[in-house]
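LOG
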Amino acid sequence: MPARRIAEEPAYVLHRYDWSESSLILDVFTRHYGRVALVAKGAKKPTSNFRPVLLPLQPLRVGYTVTAEGLGEVHPLKGAEWVGGHDHVPCVVKIDTKIPKSPIFRFENFWVEAQGFFEVVQQVWMLDPGFHDPAKYISYKLKILRKKLKLWSKNLSRIVLLLSNSNKVIDFIDLLEEERCISLIEWNFREVVKHCILKLLEFRKIYWKKRCTNRWMMLGEENTKSFQSIATERYRINTVSQILNQNG
């Protein structure tokens, strides 16, 4: 049977279901054809004309194409127009306040592994605020600790810059080793830098894990840049750079 077009059909949306990332399946009740299943392609996109129209239990005029007869057939939606049903004008209400907001203190989990963190905490916790009320006592210490940690964190070097400089040092020593035999001091220095890189990569991993997304929850460390960097550095440590025989 050839397809036919249904236009300007009065209808109500009874239910709507997600079909894909951008489309919807609609359960629509029409005046002349009863209950009909329609697919609205791209209706969830921000720029779609269907998005503000296809609301449940709102009077609409819809147009769709009937591709075949029979129960269970889903027809493509071609157009939808809101008919109305009330006499008020939609408006946006915005509520704001003039009360100043305090800046948010963000505690980074990798601070615990950084040098000097526990010294700052111990110094603050040994202070005597002079309050007898336990709530005021703890509140005062936490406020002072927040202030001290903010000042202490400003002295921390940026992880990205440290990683970049450390990798440049490793590359320079590797190039130097290709030209001549490096000394024991240079070899030890390279091993220290490699271990520092691993520690910095662990800090970066903790930093981004705190700002987790659905991707981290689903995939964990699988195929991420941080995991690849750690694997590359471990490969560097386990790589044999030179093999000496009995003659040197």
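LOG (cont.) second protein
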Amino acid sequence: MADLSNKTKPSVRGQAYLLDKLTNQRYILENSVSKIGRDESNAIYLMEDQYVSRHHARVILMQGKYYVEDLESTNGTLYNGEELIERKLLKNGDCITIGKTELVFMLE
């Protein structure tokens, strides 16, 4: 009988989420597009932060990689402390600042 124990298993993409540095709340990135803002329709709803626009930013999953982009918000978005001008590739541990809220991108 053949030994099947060494067969290669299909790869499984790890779970991606944004971690709120202040509250430790995890926002799991389940969809190909996860919008962030103060409007209840957003996947990541930041109602407590008055500096967040209704539709502030979004995280996009494209070809197995996550990107962040600002949605022309009033107060802008910071990516690792720098103003986010164009879509940026997210790496594990990157910090996204939206209003006064700091979110850390995590990929397990």
